[in-house]
Amino acid sequence: MKKLIFIILALTILSFAPQKEDAFDTGEYFKFRIHYGFVNAGYATLEVKDATINNKKVFHSIGKGYTTGMSKFFFKVEDLYESYFDKETGKPYRYVRKIDEGGYTKNQEGFFNQNENKVLVKDYKRNSEKTIMVSEEVQDIVSAFYFLRNHPNINKLKSGEAITIDMFFDDEITKFKLKYVGRQDITTKFGTVSTMVFKPLVQTGRVFKEKESLTLWITDDVNKVPIRIKADLAVGSLKADLDEYKGLQSPLKAKK
After folding, report:
1. Which residues of 6-39 are buried (b: 16+ CB within 10 A; e: fewer)?
2. Do strands 77-86 and 92-101 pair parallel, antiparallel, or not at all (unpaired)?
3. pLDDT tens figures, 133-181
4. Which residue, among 203, 90, 210, has the nearest Cα to 138 in the 3D structure?
5. What's the predicted TM-score (pTM) here?
């Protein structure tokens, strides 16, 4: 179950759709329950705060993931992801990645120079730093969540069509492709919710069975909340369901 919490955080981050008005604001908070069959594996949270960088007010998003109960004894996970990004353009200024996943650790910060399309990566574990060239529209793994929720194109997609973004992760740019499947009503703890369904293309191998092993359900409303994620793994199936929320731009629409 290595990196399962990170997988949920990373893929939650990709489950968005936009509206003409902003889909989020300061004070928004999500908590997801991650379960493997009937076993509660852990939780992941995302929240939005205000911050200041270079005398400019920016959004500060904080993502955390952690195992609980018996899962914590078998595989301890404590992940922290942060992003500081522009309130108008959504472009990132800084990210933080501090993780411990069963002994696999990273402690990094990245500082984006938007004028020169560069990112300075400081690795505190290795006591090193390097500058990497990036694309003009690059996002970090957390800022991508919020950027895509206000993206102008996703609501225009037809079934089978996809959108691709540049994402900076693990010291390189990844072309991430998100395919739109259609709409579906699903049953949640909040009632029956109308959703948009997406499938991100993932790398096959030890963790995932095939490229379309992940399915994302997003509320089909102004908020575009990632309400469910299912991952078909090489062994078994992992799910993450929205467990708590607050600070939404509009009340969550659900049929009791």
Report:
1. bbbbbbbbbbbbbbeeebbeeebebebbbbbeee
2. antiparallel
3. 999 999 999 998 898 888 787 788 899 998 888 999 889 888 888 889 9
4. 90
5. 0.85
* pLDDT tens column, 54-81: 999 999 999 999 998 777 777 888 999 9
Distance, in Å, from the CA atom of 238 to the CA atom of 34, rounded to the nearest integer, reads: 7
Beta strands in the chain (DSSP E): 29-36, 39-53, 56-67, 77-86, 92-101, 104-113, 118-123, 128-133, 139-140, 162-169, 172-188, 191-200, 214-219, 226-232, 237-246
- 18: nearest Cα among 142, 187, 138, 157: 157
- Tokens found for residue 149: 């929720």
Going by C-alpha positions, the residue among 64, 69, 80 that lies closest to residue 29 is 64
- Token code pair at residue 158: 């037809």
Its sign, for the CA torsion 82, 87, 90, 93, is negative
Distance CA 202, CA 105 (A): 23
